[in-house]
């Protein structure tokens, strides 16, 4: 890809509301939660076990953000004791195709990206005198 000249018709412009939503829906924990909920509904404790690196506080905040954005719904089950289950919404399911496109792009270009990272790191090491 050598074309870096700006084109009027396809300007890469992410407005503040778009950036905010991308940050809220496609962050590390949101993607992990969506990955789990795409398979089946889950209770909070099941999500914690499925995503062991997430803290209780981060998982709670993530679920609330996703619920606020209409991506996940919180369902109170009529059991005793009362239980809560999280489910992906119809709107949340529409995220699958664009995320799959990004994952396919990563699959195709990850070797090139890893090569670029290696070259960058080596150049940085040389600049710092560590590569000599």
Provide an overview of this structure.
This protein folds into 2 domains: 75 residues, Orthogonal Bundle (Arc Repressor Mutant, subunit A), CATH 1.10.10; 38 residues. The protein is elongated, with a radius of gyration of 20 Å. The model has no long low-confidence stretch (mean pLDDT 89). Strands 1-3-2 form a 3-stranded antiparallel beta sheet. Strand 2 and strand 3 form a beta hairpin. It contains 6 helices and 3 strands, in the order H-H-E-H-H-E-E-H-H. The protein is mainly alpha-helical and 132 residues long.
Helix-strand layout with pairing:
Layout: H1 16-25, H2 28-39, E1 42-43, H3 44-50, H4 56-68, E2 72-77, E3 83-88, H5 90-93, H6 96-128
Antiparallel strand pairs: 1-3, 2-3
Organism: Microbacterium imperiale
Domain HTH hxlR-type: 16-114
InterPro entries: HTH_HxlR, WH-like_DNA-bd_sf, WH_DNA-bd_sf
């Amino acid at each position: 890809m050598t074309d870096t000249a700006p084109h009027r018709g396809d300007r890469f412009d992410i407005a503040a509301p778009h950036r905010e939503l991308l940050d809220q829906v496609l962050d590390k924990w949101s993607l992990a939660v969506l990955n789990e909920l795409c398979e089946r509904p889950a209770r909070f404790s099941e999500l914690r076990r499925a995503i062991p690196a997430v803290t209780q506080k981060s998982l709670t905040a993530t679920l609330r953000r996703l619920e606020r954005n209409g991506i996940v719904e919180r369902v109170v089950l009529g059991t005793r004791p009362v239980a809560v289950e999280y489910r992906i919404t119809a709107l949340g399911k529409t995220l699958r195709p664009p995320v799959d496109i990004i994952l396919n792009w990563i699959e195709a270009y990850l070797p090139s990206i890893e090569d670029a990272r290696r070259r960058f790191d080596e150049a940085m090491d040389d600049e710092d005198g560590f590569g000599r």
